[in-house]
Design brief:
A two-stranded antiparallel sheet has the order 1-2. Helices cover 59% and strands 1% of the residues. Helix 4 crosses helix 6 (89-101) and helix 4 (37-63) crosses helix 11 (183-207). The protein has a domain at 25-215. The chain contains 15 helices and two strands. The protein starts with a helix and ends in a 5-residue tail after the last helix. By secondary structure, it is mostly helical.
C-alpha cells in the first residue's frame, strides 16, 4: 500500500496482538515442564480435532456453506472451531469470503503475491486493518444471536480448554503418577504448543499455497495444490481445486488427493448430523481433463 495511513495500518497492533504473541512466548514453558508421551499425544490429538474445527467448520461451513446442518449442531461446530483460538466464526469466515472475492489482487486480505510471505502468513492478523468483523459479508450467519455471542467472546472457549488441560494434567499426576505428567506440562503441550502449531499450519494455506505447488486449473489467482499442506491441514492444501470451485465440500477432487476433512464430513453425513454435501459439477472435471490433455500436447516451436 502506498499511502502513509495505509502504511500505519500495516504495522503491528501490539495491544491487539497480545493473545497471539503470548501463545508463542508461553510455548517456551516446555523447557521447564519437561516431556511425557501422554502430553505429547494430547497435543497431537487436540491439534487434529481443532484442525477439523478450522477446515471443516470455519472454512467449509461458515465461509462457503458447502453443506448443511441443524442449528444445534451448527452451534456445537462453532464451539469446536472457536476452540482453535483463531477469532470467532463470523470474523474468520467474513475475512475469508473477502479473500476469495479479491484473491491475489491489491484488495486481497492476505496475498503473498501482492505483498510478502510474512504479511500473508501472520502480518495481516497482527496489523490494525482487520480487527473488526464485517457483518455485511456474513449476514447469513450473523442473524444467529448465539453465533454473534461466540464471535464477540471468542476467547471464552480457548480459556475453558486451557483450564481443562491443566486439570487433566493434575488429575493424571494424582491418579497415574507413572505417566510423569502434570497440570503445567499438559497445559503447555496440550494447549499452547498444539494451538501455535495449528496457527502456523493454517497460515501456510495463505502464505505458501499461493506460491508453491501445482496448478490444475487456470484460475484468476495464483492458488496451487500442495500435498504436504493438505496432510498438515486435513485437506486444505488442494487450494487450486478449492479456488476453482469453492462451493465444493471436498477439496481433494480425486480419490488419490488426501482430504481427511472430507472423510470426516462424509461420516457425519452418514449419521445425519450434516447433509447436502456439495461436490464439483461435471463441467469442472471435464475442464480438468481438457487441461491435462492440452498439457500433454507438445507446443509448436
Amino acid at each position: 500500500m502506498n499511502s502513509e495511513s495505509d502504511n500505519l495500518t500495516d504495522k503491528i497492533n501490539w495491544i491487539q496482538s497480545i493473545p497471539v504473541l503470548s501463545m508463542h512466548i508461553l510455548c517456551l514453558g516446555v523447557f521447564f515442564v519437561g516431556f511425557s508421551w501422554v502430553a505429547f499425544g494430547v497435543c497431537i490429538l487436540f491439534y487434529w480435532i481443532r484442525a477439523f474445527g478450522i477446515t471443516g467448520v470455519y472454512h467449509r461451513y461458515f465461509a462457503h456453506k458447502t453443506y448443511k446442518t441443524s442449528r444445534i449442531f451448527q452451534f456445537f461446530l462453532a464451539l469446536l472451531g472457536t476452540s482453535a483460538a483463531q477469532m470467532g466464526p463470523l470474523w474468520w469466515a467474513g475475512h475469508h469470503r473477502k479473500h476469495h472475492r479479491y484473491s491475489d489482487t491489491d484488495r486481497d486480505v492476505h496475498s503473498p503475491v501482492r505483498k510478502s510471505f510474512y504479511w500473508a502468513h501472520i502480518g495481516w492478523i497482527l496489523s490494525s486493518q482487520y480487527i473488526h468483523t464485517d457483518h455485511g459479508v456474513i449476514q447469513d450467519f450473523a442473524r444467529y444471536p448465539e453465533l454473534r455471542f461466540l464471535n464477540r467472546f471468542h476467547m471464552l472457549v480457548p480459556a475453558a480448554l486451557a483450564t481443562f488441560m491443566f486439570w487433566l494434567g493434575e488429575f493424571l499426576a494424582l491418579r497415574f503418577p507413572s505417566l510423569q505428567t502434570s497440570g503445567l506440562q499438559m497445559l503447555i503441550w496440550g494447549f499452547f504448543i498444539s494451538t501455535v502449531f495449528l496457527y502456523h499450519c493454517t497460515f501456510l494455506v495463505n502464505s505458501l499455497a499461493h506460491v508453491w505447488g501445482s496448478r490444475r486449473f487456470e484460475t484468476s489467482d495464483e492458488s496451487r495444490n500442495n500435498l504436504l499442506i493438505s496432510i498438515l491441514t486435513l485437506g486444505e492444501g488442494w487450494h487450486n481445486n478449492h479456488h476453482r470451485y469453492p462451493q465444493s465440500e471436498r477439496q481433494g477432487f480425486y480419490w488419490w488427493e488426501i482430504d481427511v476433512t472430507h472423510y470426516i464430513l462424509s461420516a457425519l453425513a452418514r449419521l445425519n448430523l450434516v447433509w447436502d454435501l456439495q461436490v464439483p459439477p461435471k463441467h469442472v472435471y471435464d475442464e480438468a481433463l481438457r487441461l491435462r490433455q492440452e498439457a500433454r500436447i507438445p507446443k509448436a516451436s
